[in-house]
Amino acid sequence: MKKLEFACVCWMLPNGCVLGVVPGTTFELVGESLPKLLSALKRALRRKYAEHPWMDSPLTEPQLREVKIAIQPTVEVGGRIHTSSQPVKLPVHAVVGRNDYGSHSGYILRFDVGFDFYEASEVPILVENIVRGQLRGQGPERLHRYLSLDEPWLERIEVRVKGNPRENVQQPIAERAPKLVAIAEQLPHGRSIRRLSRAFPSVAWEREAQVAEVVAKLSDERANLLVVGDPGVGKSAILLEAIRKIARRKPGTDEPSLQTFWKTAAYRLTTGARYFGEWQKIADSLAEELGDVKGVLWLADFVNLLCVGEANPESSLGAYWSPHLDRGRFQIVGEVTPRELEAARTLLPGLIERFQVVHVEEMGTSALLRVLSRLGEYAGQNLGIEIEREALEATYRLQSRFSPYGRFPGKAVSFLSDVLGEMQLSGRKRVGARDVAELFVERTGLPSTLVQDEVLLDPDELSGFFHERIKGQADAIDKVCNVVKVFKAGLCDLGKPIATMLFAGPTGVGKSETARALGDYFFGAGQRLDPLIRLDMSELQHPVQIDRLIGTAQEPGKLVEQVRERPFSVLLLDEVEKAHPVFFDILLTVLDEGLLFDAMGRETCFKSCIVVMTSNLGSGSHCSLGFGKAKPPDYESEVRAHFRPEFCNRIDYLVTFHPLGRETAAAIVRKELGGLEKREGIEDRGLRLRFTDELFDWIGEAGFDPRYGARPLQRAIERLVVGPLSRRLLDDVELRNCVLELGWQQEDQLSIVVGSTG
């Protein structure tokens, strides 16, 4: 028997229970008391080590290190980034020690990162750099998550197990394959570090047939393999379960040595290459090391193999390694979507011919419900958290109706795991349908009015929201409200964007503001990021600029990057008529199927977006015929004359905006002046603003121009009100917690009268 000592980091939870994490393993449990927790972890470690004798030994001489990092939270409001002036001291804890390769390793707790180091003095610098990278651009709510637990402490768990089979190997893998160890994680349970936020194990329930097929092809046939399926169908879980089964096999007398499995990303394969021809040397070294350890290389981003090394697929690493695959020195298993497979077969058919294929379809409803039920049982038995059946049903309903960009079971399991993570941090023991709905609102920004069927939609409240934001455009507001009602009724086509709208009208009449109001109503209920993605299409007047929109094989473009980051959003394509016609060919697929594919077949989903395009077409046709009345612009005719019929047919709503009259201008002045109280300098001083009727009239007269709409009014407010008010506040720094009455003097100047304190 061999004695192993595992480090266990513990936290006291608000409900009196103890959370325990064994760094470098998959174990994270909650116990009613410390002795019960340690006992449960000891049994689990002994059982897991017996099942997986090849898992790495624990760190020796473990130490718990604390690094305090000053983080300045940022918040995005109205498209602007605001950084806190007061830094937050974030205590970050790491466990460090010697690994079984003889070098030093560390694990940053509550972050998905492990690291190696040479000297103990390097730890604070490494931890700080890693954590700052993880938290860059994050808001206060995520920082609060890392501040929500008490101070941790270190416990040790002694486990007696049978000797490790790796002791029979004369030379450690770290010495036989140093480059491979540096760029890949060994599976199962090698140097991998579990995401602490993920509550469920990565298992392939209801996928036994696919697991068996993968095992046969990888282990028995020693084939190169591509697992093909849409995102979320469970490709990674199937591969991981297959690797576990292969690793549990005992080699017989007529069976070759055990395979080793390594997971990495394609772009890491040429790490360190700086000069011409250097990446080929690195590739040769990796191929040799993989052959020495009977390696199977798992690439989750297989298609990127065609653009690593050199951008041309025929000169890429994929082409360079093809002869190695023919000789069978090592194997590659990759994950691809059907579109990626089609693109790879077109770009480099010789490589794809060397692979066998296993197809994985989206999980059916009955199988999915069985998986969710088993997850509920797992949570109750291992985490001490009961998931009500209504919560499981709500997860399925919300994900199937409102999250078309993923596939089952992945999107349901991932979301339910996030729910359990929140429950663990708050110390709660029961998950209900309401908890599921609240987190879904937070993740997507969709308001509970649209998410929960039992919450009725008030038409007057809906209309009032937009009338408060948009002045003088009743017809446009009616069409925008209709989009909301169709979505609430569940009548949207899930195979395309929620709605495609073209806002036509003169400049400055509220087209962009309507798009922003639509984004705030639809997606502004919870998510931290701005729900409006704006692209100025006048900057895309040449076909070579298509890379700025979609991207290249190596880097995504602006549109792709932002939609992937914010799948629930309003996509505003401003002045769309000024873009080059080639961009409309790209938009056809987006508007028709809600999908966009790059040259490598990588998918970007727009099915949770509302696409809004703005145009000034027709606004210049408002002319007078003889002595008669001016002819109103025919926006629809102008739009159909400019765009191709197949593009016009994909527009769900053509929304026309009318020029502003004086009454509308006066309403806009009142709205804009009322918004001054929300500015930071006013709120920080505790000031309240009151405005005289004379001031409203003065601004309306000075800023009204029917040709340019509301923009001159906004400029007039900045020049005639905000400017003088800011000078007064700078001159009187003691002016706080009072009412300021702003009026107009006969000398065309702003008058400021200080009222009572409040």
* Mean residue pLDDT: 88
Number of β-strand runs? 30
Per CATH, what is the topology of the largest domain?
Rossmann fold
Instruction: Give the overall shape.
Output: globular
The CATH fourth-level homologous superfamily of the largest domain: P-loop containing nucleotide triphosphate hydrolases
CATH-defined architecture of the largest domain: 3-Layer(aba) Sandwich
CATH class of the largest domain: Alpha Beta
Strand content: 15-25%
Give the % helix: 40-55%
The domain tally reads 5
Largest sheet: 6 strands, mixed
Instruction: List the strand order in the largest sheet.
Output: 11-13-14-15-12-16
- In the predicted model, the low-confidence regions spanning at least 5 consecutive residues are 165-170, 190-197, 252-257, 623-628
Radius of gyration: 30 Å
Number of helices: 29
Key traits:
758 residues, alpha/beta, Rossmann fold, Helicase, Ruva Protein, domain 3, six-stranded mixed β-sheet, five-stranded parallel β-sheet, 29 helices
Outline the structure in words.
The chain is built from 29 helices and 30 strands. The protein is α/β, with parallel strands linked by helices. The strands form nine sheets. A six-stranded mixed beta sheet has the order 11-13-14-15-12-16, with helices on both faces. Helix 8 links the parallel strand 13 and strand 14 (295-299). Helix 14 crosses helix 15 (410-426) and helix 15 (410-426) crosses helix 16.
